[in-house]
Write a structure and sequence with these properties.
single chain, 27 strands, 3 domains, about 25% strand, seven-stranded antiparallel beta sheet, eight-stranded antiparallel beta sheet, 20 helices, Glutamine Phosphoribosylpyrophosphate, subunit 1, domain 1, binds 5-amino-5-deoxy-1-O-phosphono-D-mannitol, globular, Rossmann fold, alpha/beta
Amino acid sequence: MCGIVGYIGDQEAYPILIKGLHRLEYRGYDSAGVALINNESDLSVYKAKGKVVALEQLCSEKDVSGTIGIAHTRWATHGEPNEVNAHPHFSQSRHLALVHNGIIENYKSLRAELEKNGFTFCSQTDTEVLVQWVEHMQNTHHCDLYTAVQLALKNVVGAYAIAILDKTNPDQLVCARKGSPLIIGVSKNESGRSEFYLGSDATPIIEYTNKVVYLKDEEIAIMDRTGRLDITNLANVKQTPQLCTLQMSLDQLEKGGFPHFMLKEIWEQPNALRTCIRGRLNIVDKDVILSGILDNKDKFINCRRIIICACGTSWHSALIGKYFIEEAAHIPVEVEYASEFRYRNPVIYPDDVVIAVSQSGETADTLAAIQLAKSKGAFLYGICNVIGSSIARATDSGTYLHVGPEIGVASTKAFTGQVITLGLLGLAIAKEKGTLDDKIFHMLVDELQQIPDKMQWTLDHNKDIAHFAQMFTYCKNFIYLGRGYNYPVALEGALKLKEISYIHAEGYPAAEMKHGPIALVDEEMPVVVIAPKRGMYDKVVSNIQEIKSRKGKIISVVTEGDTVVKEMSDYCFVIPDTRDCFVPLLAVIPLQLLSYYVAIAKGRNVDQPRNLAKSVTVE
Ligand code: M6R
């Protein structure tokens, strides 16, 4: 949610900043801006409403020289998305320019105080208050920028990642974070001179260096052209920067011939999941090795229950995880919306294990939920995709998805990565607890190993649906139905359609229809039913009958070779047979494709749907 880029070094900053904004655009895309200090120490700020290309267009007629700069792509919180509210924001004297990700909760009282001191404001943003507050500290304490930032942040309540320029000191870049991510890329150019790059995540940095420092909460960093990188915390205690190596390649951030990241990520799933299970499934010895579980066996064996906290798509995968862990490891599992859990004073015991599931590892509500659990003494486990993310670092242990960067706002490969990781986790705990019969355990290991190939089969057999999807362009509503393991898949299919095509869709447990929602069904209502030839097949067939008798249009997901449901359906997606617990990994694929092609037929921007951002770092 909002992206920050920064640079200081010998190169021209503008091209680096613009490229970085393009890479971060998935985090927010309602306006963008850039601030640069040129050789004459002029501080220029350019801002535009809309996407980064609008900013580029504006800047094509401006002086964008300078070897130090900061930039921002915004997802509006305070103040509508327009040029005035876009970042960077100037301070009153226009000596300072600041970009910000997060929310300053006490901005109203700070603003009132500043107004008493003669400050005036151009925008409605909390960010303008912050930059003015830093200037106020400089004025009242006659201190340098670094100290002023430190003093200012001590008065701030809320979350922030900031980067700030001071035209009176064009050789320094200052940044800080609390609750919003910020990464510093460290490199030396050919002449051996230091350069620093800033990013909300690693995507704008990886092109230049793979050596990074993850700034921690309440840390402030100063970088200068001599290679100085000093970090202190708000209490002014010096911290030692810890250099890490990024595990990411540039081609993972490109579309690789696909028209959209979402479609690329859908097709990447077989390989992404192969990487996810590599080294974790031992097919020869029929074993599951998850170091996060092995190192903390006792916590899992002796826990009273597991609570999984997540949001959105991650919540759907958590629900599938619950069904599997309960079935395989016989541990009660509760799945919680992190945003509800964090505010409702839940009962948490010290012998609970709390699992956070999050692609980005930065979702503010999920982070707050585990902080609450930590304060009650629970053991925290993270299932994240982004390496080094806040949730990954805040948890006691965890497992990374290793499905590669997910850029499309609609989550696809992270969902299947989470489902398979929760499957591995359930199996690993079941092995330690001895809750599964050996034969069943081995059979599940074998089946899991085959899932990537079965995903490929599913993609190959359902790829030509662009024409079919066009028929639904004019629909106002969709219903998605599933039972057991496929109920969360119905929720996920409905979410995918809503977020990228803007068609209203509801996911329901199939048998719940007759308790109310069936009243919605008429000849105009497409009903997507996940009906594999497994588990509750006969019951789902009856549920389909109920819809058909009300003239609903049936789109089904069936097991290869099934004819019964096929004949009852207006359109059918096929998937290969697999165990009940792994059906979601295959059944979700046609639903991802359906939402993609309906959205394309409606002319939507699937990678950057309206009002959304990839990583939700505000509550
Ligand atoms: O990064 P997280 O997994 O914590 O994100 C949670 C949700 O914001 C996310 O899954 C969201 O629902 C996606 N846009 C769904 O496609």
